[in-house]
Amino acid sequence: MDENEIKGAAREFGGRVQDALGGLTGDAKTQAEGKWNQAAGQAQRSFGATVDDVIENVKDKPLAALAAVAGVSFLAGWLMRK
């Protein structure tokens, strides 16, 4: 599990608590900040999961990963010529 997944899950949970607290107290600002933290936590958690998947694929298929990097590098160089 990636560090981003853990931090994202914690931020998402904190955002849920903040959202609920804002709803109970009628504080729209706190509720909005809670919703923002929930979304940011979900994004961070997804990023961490993607990093884990990429690392796992590189370990399992190093030649395919090398070929993908070479292909992307070639394409970037071709698009940036002149």
Protein described:
There is one protein chain. This protein has 82 residues and is mostly helical. It has one domain (3-79). 90% of the residues lie in helices and 0% in strands. It contains 3 helices and no strands. The chain is elongated, with a radius of gyration of 20 Å. The model has no long low-confidence stretch (mean pLDDT 93).
In short:
The protein has 82 residues and is mainly α. The chain is 90% helix and 0% strand. α1 runs antiparallel to α2 and α2 crosses α3.
Topology, element by element:
Blueprint: H1 3-25, H2 28-60, H3 62-79
Helix pairs in contact: 1-2, 2-3
Distinctive features:
single chain; 82 residues; mainly alpha; 0% strand; elongated
Rg calculated over all Cα atoms: 20 Å
Main sheet specs: none
Secondary structural class: mainly alpha
Give the H and E element order: HHH
Cα separation of the termini: 43 Å
**Unreliable sequence segments:** none
DSSP strand tally = 0
Query: Helix coverage percent of residues?
Result: over 70%
- Domain count: the total is 1
β-strand percent reads under 5%
3D shape? elongated
Arithmetic mean pLDDT:
93
